[in-house]
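Field log, afternoon session.

UNIT: design team B
ACTIVITY: writing a sequence onto a fixed backbone
BACKBONE:
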């Protein structure tokens, strides 16, 4: 089902462009206003993410006052699946291909997880085109360059990806969900597994994982000259909050905001979702988004209205009187017993 914006169905338009090496990249546009480019990350699917309830609240909020631009990185989603070369440099060129196809001259970047390193590298290579950087649950260095992880850590996860990618086997799914969605409902975890299956094959997922976990752009961070907002969930199990601290400490003038969540993907019911969207809006000089909460608020309002009508109805009053009389009779019986 389509997202809803101010009572009107919010549709997305999907287009395609070619990266410098000829790989076809799928990208999507939604909403109106100044552009906001969401950098591609590990596994996405433009259509499936748009239709699923797990991501829709974020997409609605981001598209309320902006034209939200998303894309599937090479090898995933609707982009070219038959690619032989998957590397960090290609991730950066894929981003460039999308913004060039749209003719964007200057725009803010929103990067999640491993997309953070891509946004940093692109900004350094194109300093006049990026106006703002927003980083959520991001990192500058992958597991290969972190204490207590390294090569053995990566090899273990590669084996898990090969065997359990998109699997409904609880033993495998728990390994992924415990990091991405530790508080997810069974339905959300099922959606997450299906997203893995639709986004990429295990072979491609493994290649992307290796390419992103061996990256290290820390040397570039002090060179960033654009306003930067770093947000990170306090209990993020996928990317430790220390990685967010590192980004904010090494990027000149960056602002850091800790979010109260243990999920890597912020869920709609969490207060952290509203904090995130409000912080992004304020950072970009936009009004705070409201439409993404409308359905929940409408549902709550309907329930309250129904409750008030029930309370005011004659049936409710009669039932209340019967209950009161029954209570008195029960008390008398107890006294006489």
């Amino acid at each position: 089902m389509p997202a809803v914006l101010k009572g009107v169905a919010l549709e997305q338009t999907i287009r395609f462009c070619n990266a410098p090496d000829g790989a076809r990249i799928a990208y999507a546009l939604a909403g109106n206003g100044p552009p906001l480019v969401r950098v591609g990350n590990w596994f996405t699917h433009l259509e499936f993410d748009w239709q699923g309830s797990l991501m829709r609240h974020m997409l609605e909020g981001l598209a309320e006052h902006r034209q939200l631009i998303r894309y599937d990185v090479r090898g995933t989603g609707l982009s070219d699946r038959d690619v032989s070369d998957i590397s960090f440099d290609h991730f950066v060129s894929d981003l460039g291909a999308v913004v060039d196809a749209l003719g964007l001259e200057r725009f803010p970047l929103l990067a999640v997880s491993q997309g953070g390193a891509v946004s940093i590298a692109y900004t350094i290579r194109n300093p006049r085109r990026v106006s703002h950087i927003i980083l959520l649950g991001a990192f500058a260095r992958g597991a290969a360059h972190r204490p207590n992880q390294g090569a053995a850590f990566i090899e273990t996860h590669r084996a898990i990806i090969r065997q359990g990618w998109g699997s409904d086997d609880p033993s495998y799914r728990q390994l992924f969900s415990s990091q991405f969605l530790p508080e997810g409902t069974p339905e959300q975890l099922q959606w997450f597994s299906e997203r893995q299956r639709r986004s990429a094959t295990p072979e491609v997922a493994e290649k992307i994982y290796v390419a992103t976990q061996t990256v290290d752009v820390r040397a570039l961070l002090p060179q960033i000259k654009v306003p930067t907002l770093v947000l990170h969930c306090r209990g993020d199990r996928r990317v430790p909050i220390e990685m967010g601290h590192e980004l904010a400490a090494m990027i000149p003038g960056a602002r850091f905001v800790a979010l109260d969540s243990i999920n890597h993907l912020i869920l709609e019911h969490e207060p952290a979702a509203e904090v995130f969207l409000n912080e992004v809006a304020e950072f970009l000089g936009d009004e705070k988004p409201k439409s993404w909460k409308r359905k929940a608020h409408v549902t709550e309002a309907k329930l309250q209205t129904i409750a008030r009508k029930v309370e005011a109805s004659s049936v409710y009053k009669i039932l209340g009187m019967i209950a009161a009389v029954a209570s008195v009779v029960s008390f008398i019986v107890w006294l006489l017993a």
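LOG NOTE: The domain at 3-289 is CATH 3.40.50.1820 (Rossmann fold).
NEXT ACTIVITY: expression trials, pending approval
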